[in-house]
Structure formats: C-alpha cells, structure tokens
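User: Can you model how adenosine-5'-diphosphate sits in this protein?
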Amino acid sequence: MKLIFLGPPGAGKGTQAAGVSAHLRVPHISTGDMFRSAIRNATPVGLEAKKYLDAGELVPDSVVIDMVRERLSMADCQDGYLLDGFPRTVDQAVALDEISAPDAVVDIQVLDERLMDRLTGRRICEKCSGTFHISKLADEHICPVCGGAVYQRDDDQPETISVRLRAYHEQTEPLIGYYSGQDQKSRPGENRLKIVNGDLKPEDVFRAILATLE
Ligand code: ADP
Ligand code: ZN
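Assistant: Here's the modeled complex, given as structure tokens:
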C-alpha cells in the first residue's frame, strides 16, 4: 500500500501517520522530520532547508523531490510507504507519480480557526517524540507518557504559523483537485482522494482512516 496523508499543518497527520504506518507495516516518511534531522546534523540539505523552515515557507521543489526520490529507492519502501508532508505542491505530486505513484491519498480536514490553537499549544516529547496539546498536560514541561521533557517546535509561533497556513492554502490545497482527477495535470479519470474529518478525537480519526482505506 502506497499512501499519502494530506492536510493543513496541525491536522494531525504526524500522529495519525505513526499509528496507521504501524498498523499497515509500511515505513512512515515525514519530510518535515527529515529536514529537522538534516538541520540538526548540519548536512548540505539541512543548511539549504533551514531558512525556509525558520520562515514557515516551503523548501524548493528540487531539494525535496531529490530527498524523497532517494528515500523511496531504499529497500524498506519497495512494498509500500506512508508519506506525511509530501507532496506539498502539484509539481511534487507529478514527480511522485513518476517515481512511485501512490494508491490512495487521505486528506485530513480541519478548519483554519481550530489550527492556530492546535499549533500554538503543541508540545513534543524529546524522549518518545509523542505530541501533546498543552491543555492536556498536568505539568507543562513533562511528557505524560514517558516523563521526558517536552519542547515547542521553533516554527509553532503565531507569525510562522500564519505563513505556513497561507503556504498550505496557496500551494498544497490544489492537490485535492490533482488527486481527485480534476486538475489539468491529473492522471485522466483517476480519483485517489479519500476525505476524513480531522476534527474528532484522535482514535476516531484513526478509525475513519482505516474505514476509508478498506
Ligand atoms: P507541518 O505540517 O506541521 O507544517 P512539517 O513537519 O510537515 O510541518 O513541515 C515543516 C516544514 O518543513 C515546512 O514548513 C516546510 O518548510 C518544510 N517541508 C516539509 N515538507 C515539505 C515539502 N514537501 N515541500 C516543501 N517544504 C517542506
Ligand atoms: Zn515522552
């Protein structure tokens, strides 16, 4: 199964992708995580990508596409993958269809007015990588699952979030037309799009995703 999770920042793609990839036994590939790790390790890609992540803007297509092409050529991706955060532009989607076309695209929908609160309140555990909303933490610095320290992502600040939401609407939302077969560049007559309501409890979103993939 080759799968894509689409949706705005804060829709819950990362949380759901972790659960669904374990369930389907396919690798979870998050381009955002790959960039953050490249930045930490100061690789050439990391040095190039840093200014875009800091600003909340998209990294240029050529950089992202090369990185994903290399990742998808690895042995663990030959029977399937779950991509989270890629593609984010129509040109990335066209490139992916040439590299290894996805079977289904799950669009997790959440309204903008819910996203700002979700993202400004998002905290991540540095030990287990769990994601939590600050309103659910008994101690705002401690992970309720493993006791590790939680931190806030650098780009989860209101000004950067606004830039990311704008980038989503302008550059990524057109993928809904692309995957439902309504874009000029779409593969003729092909609808791979599955829509899921992301404004539910995480376990209900998980169930809805599995149901739509049946
Ligand atoms: P979110 O979905 O919460 O915005 P991600 O972790 O998926 O966060 O991405 C963080 C940042 O990484 C983006 O704002 C962008 O700068 C960069 N990025 C990730 N994936 C892509 C992509 N496919 N194309 C361009 N930039 C990307
Ligand atoms: Zn933890």
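A couple of observations from the model: Residues 125, 127-128, 130, 143, 145-146, 148 surround zinc ion (ligand 2) (CB under 6 Å). Residues 31 and 68 are 8 Å apart (CA to CA).
User: Helpful, thanks.
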